[in-house]
Structures are given as structure tokens and as C-alpha cells.
Write a structure and sequence with these properties.
By secondary structure, this protein is mainly alpha-helical. Helix content is about 55%, strand content about 10%. Helix 2 (about 15-40) runs parallel beside helix 4 (about 55-80).
Length: about 100
Amino acid sequence: MPYKVQKAAKYWPGRDAAERRASLLETWEKIVDLLDKEVAGTRAALGSPNLLNRARDLKSWEDMLDAIVCAWVGITALKGQAVPHGDDVSAIWIPSRKE
């Protein structure tokens, strides 16, 4: 999913900086909407990023989003609602789809 500030030019090479930031915001909004359904209060805790901020400030907001995603994945893993992909030494945990 294209949501990393540092890769915005790579995700959308034909767009100018303002358009790339708008695209990031659109993607972030989708992620936050989905997360807020899983972890109540996500939207309130994160607030909205200011697209006029410097890239490093946007990166800080992105890092907070990453932290919440990681916490949610950890919660699902502990509840037995995630599947490990890897080996006996390390794995990436992917939450299972709800039926």
C-alpha cells in the first residue's frame, strides 16, 4: 500500500509534490478509517496530518500510524487471530480476515 512519505515520488512519479501529498493523505485516511474500527480511538489519538508541514513532520505522523498498526497486529497475534509467515526463528504476523 503506498503510504510512506519517503517513497511518494516513486509511488506517483507523474504528480507534483502537492498532488503526492494529497495522495498520501487519501491513503492514510483509508488506513485510519480501517484501524479505528479495530482499535477504537485511533483517529482521535492521531488527529490529521497537516500536508503543509515539512516532510520530516509528515514522517513523524507516519511513524505514529506505523506504531498503531504494529500494536494492532500484536494484539491480534496474542488473541490467536493472526497467521505467522516465516520460519521457526522469525515471522511476519498477518491478521486473519474476519468472517
